[in-house]
Amino acid sequence: MDTRIEGILRYHERTKHHQTRYAPGPAGLDWPNQPDPFRVYEGAPRHEWRLGAGALGTAYADLKRPGSVPPRPLTGDNLGILFEMSLGLSAWKSVGAVSWALRCNPSSGNLHPTEGYLVCPSVPGLDRGVYHYLPREHAIERRAQPGERWDEAFSPGGVIVGLSSIPWREAWKYGERAYRYCQHDAGHALASLRYAAAALGWEASLLEAWADADVASLLGLDQDGPAAEEREVPELLIRVGPEPGSPEPARLLEALRDTPWAGRSNRLSARPVHWLAIDEAERAIRKPRTRLRPEDPIPPLPPLVGPVPGPLAADLFRERRSAVAYDGTTAMPAAAFFSILDALLPRPRVPPFDALPWPPRLHVLAFVHRVEGLAAGLYLLARTAEGEDVLREAVGPGWEWASLPGCPSHLRIWRLLAEDVTRVARLISCHQDIAADSCFSLAMLAEFEAAFVEGPWAYRTLFWEAGAMGQSLYLEAEAWGFRGTGIGCYFDEEVHRLLGLRGDVLQDLYHFTVGGPLEDDRLTTLPPYGHLQR
Ligand SMILES: Cc1cc2nc3c(=O)[nH]c(=O)nc-3n(C[C@H](O)[C@H](O)[C@H](O)COP(=O)(O)O)c2cc1C
Hints:
Largest sheet: 7 strands, antiparallel
Oligomer: single chain
Low-confidence stretches: none
Strand content: 15-25%
Bound molecules: flavin mononucleotide
Number of domains: 2
CATH architecture of the largest domain: 3-Layer(aba) Sandwich
Mean pLDDT: 96
Structural class: alpha+beta
């Protein structure tokens, strides 16, 4: 086996939480040393964006009807709305003298390792350049301004949005497992961008062929930057705009050559800690340039039905929150349950899964607690026909495989077991009540071993897909009047044992829970940009 694949499999194994032993992490939280969640390039010229999402009239339901949102022109102001609805702040929370910002994109522990970049040609209202996004200020800082040849290297009608991670921000709290959470968060951010683009009537797709080194060069991450412990590593690029397109890495990088870089990155902590297992994982899965995958058209499905009339997209994006507790009584109509799961299937030109260039590789094991008309129990959803074969082969014998009355015929979902599963759901999600007091919780099972045929970097893409599924679940739950929470803390092997899974054919990569939330009255909520005097 490729030694780099062995390296990443070692990382995966050693970062599993077990009932008897959590993955290696810090002994306690070093509060004075908590990394700053806001990176700034001091000295780089800034462009302040207007706040415009509140005036966007797109209905969330229209995102599921391709062609129903007229594309907005590619302008600086509309790019500002794209970032405001995806990576911008959504609120401030405070208790006593302490306050913290929430963002449209969720993040494990609200630590936000993901940084956003805009790479664009000249568009009305904005000069060409490579810009770093400042969510607190809703502004961008220009790190590089290449010459005119740069504009020709873009395919018309689109820009590039880049994402990177600062693993130290997550490792400060979560230690070695943090690198997984960085990947989940990148997947959430990717999906947030795809949803926001759709609300502007724009296309968005992952630029999968780029090498990590090229992404780092394009975003300026390989310039003199932060100390090694606080370094920012390249994650992904997304092409976004009113027209589809795929810019050539070589032409863009050539046009960027010899351009000076502005700004010095701020220090995030006084004493950053080096987590060697994360360095090794990150080294093992660096991606070279790869060929474009042959087009694999998404099979058509019946249109998605959602709640009517439903919210405005921009409101939903900014009002999305994680539940910190559930009431343990709210029941969900079966129609909502089926629709929330249905939204996890890719559909042509429907966000967020049309942005991912590979067919679904993650499936769902649901722990149903309170869904009207469905017995409490264990359920399995295959997101593809091929996935159904993998699941049937991998899951141990003795399960019911019962089909469900009232379930849309294209949804491959079965009941494996009818029984109260609240205790097991709580236990496998690190004893967290949120997995048991909700309407349902779930585990995402990845076709793990098979994905590595592409290369070790497939590890990251599996987590991105999990994060995109999480973002879909968050928004769908909210649209139906419920609330979701991503769950990164779970006992990997307990889930595998429960189903009788052997080896690495399937691995559990993320949990999620949806139900009727309990609010925490001790917290005050403030608007996202009340602190800006614009
Ligand atoms: C990858 C990921 C893992 C998470 N894991 C947990 C978890 O195990 N338990 C929990 O209560 N919340 C978990 N959360 C929820 C975060 O704490 C929450 O997203 C963050 O505090 C920001 O709040 P917001 O989602 O309301 O913006 C997770 C979120 C993400 C994205």
